Each structure stands twice: as C-alpha cells, then as structure tokens.
Amino acid sequence: MSLAKVIRVLLVDDHRIITDGLRILLDGAPDMECVGTCADGAEAIESITHLAVDVVLMDIDMPVMDGIAATERIKHDRPAVKVIILSMHDEPAVVKRVMELGADGYLVKNCGREELVYAIRAVHAGQRHFTSSVVDGLVKQRHSMDSAKDVLKDLSEREVEVLAALAEGLGNKEIGDRLFISPRTVDTHRTNLMKKLDIHNLAGLVRVAIKAGLVR
After folding, report:
1. Distance of alpha carbon 115 from alpha carbon 172, whole angstroms
2. First to last CA, the chain
3. Is pLDDT of 147 > 80?
C-alpha cells in the first residue's frame, strides 16, 4: 500500500495506558499509522504544527488544555485536520458543544475496535461519525425540549421572560429591575405560571425552563 493512502493518526489522552492500547489497535489496520501521542490539548496543537496529521483522536478531560478547547483551536487553525472525540462522557450537552465546534466524530470509550477503525476511515473520507448512543441521547434531548416548548405555547411573552429569569436564579426585585416591572407584578406572573403549567414550586418551573432551552 502506498504511503499516500495511509491515514496518519495522532492520539491525545493523558492516560498512557489508553494511548498505548489505541496504538496497538491501530497497528492492526494496514491503512493507518500512529504518528504520535500527546498528554493534553496543548501538546496536540503543538504537534500538528510539525507533524503531518490527518485524524486526531481526542480525549476531553485532560490537564493544561482540555479536548474541547483543543478541538476548537484545531478546527479554527487547521480545518483540514479531522478530530474525533474519544471520551467516557456521552452527555448530550457535551456532544452538542463539540459538534458546534466542528468535531468530525464522537466515540465513547466502550466502543469496539471495528467502530473505532470505521470512524477514522469515515471522517478521513469527509464524512462524520457519531456513535449510536450519542445520537440517541441527542434525539431524546430534542424530543424533551420540543415537549417543553409545547407547554410554553400558552404562555405570554412576558411570562416566558419571567420564567427564564426565575430559572437563572433571580429574585422578584432583580427580575423587576430587568423587565422594568414591579416586584409585585413579577410575583403575579410567577403565580400565573404555576397555574398554567400546573407546577407548585420554583424547582418545577426551573426544570421546564431548562428543558425548553430558555437557560443553559
């Protein structure tokens, strides 16, 4: 096989046992070559300035610079370099964030060798690959948000503003100052929100606001 067809992979993880294991897995793929290993995002950014790298396998939780910050920097400075997140995290918020930053793939660390190799080949070919559990989590989150937004459709614009402010942890006076209304009016809106949404405490209102995407 010619050198031009070899996919050059950089491994980025602060645990040596992980990078050693990944290197062994990739050694069995004739079209892949591990060109280096890094213990944090800063090392990865430095490495791709003097190494020919096609695909970066990037952990998230690392010292000095985490994988999210490193992914953002790499995709900004060198968009041709493909980045696959390989993490123990599969929370929808984390996945959505790295997708927004331009990550080309997302795998959880319990994936098998076949999926790992497939993902590397896919992103190198210009596709994106996100493991099924990650996709399922994003779909469930979207359904939850859509359901919460349906609940909000009967609220007035002002009530939605008050709900969002309550979810931020603001008190009646702070909300009143922000919206140029009196604290008593804020309290009235709060009471009406609980009636319309059939919720009987502030924690319930906050949960609805978060699910609807009113606050992060």
Report:
1. 52
2. 49
3. no
User: Which whole number is the average pLDDT over 24-28?
Assistant: 91
Per the model's pLDDT, the better-predicted residue between 158 and 143 turns out to be 158
Which listed CATH number (1.10.10.10, 3.40.50.720, 3.30.750.24, 1.10.510.10) goes with 154-211?
Answer: 1.10.10.10
Of 172, 160, 136, 173, give the one whose Cα is nearest residue 215. Answer: 160
Task: Write the CB contacts of 8 (distance below 8 Å, at least 6 apart in sequence).
Answer: 33, 35, 51, 52, 53, 54, 55
Place of tokens 């709900």: 163
CB atoms under 10 Å from CB of 182, counted, come to 12
Encode burial over 55-68: b for 16+ CB neighbours within 10 A, e otherwise: bbbbbbebeebbbb
Q: How far apart are CA 215 and CA 28, in angstroms?
A: 46
Per-residue pLDDT at 152 = 80
15 pLDDT exceeds 50? yes
What ranges do the domains of the chain cover? 3-134, 154-211
Contact in structure between 104 and 128 (CB atoms under 8 Å): yes
Per-residue pLDDT reduced to its tens digit, 53-94: 999 999 999 999 999 999 999 999 999 999 999 988 777 777
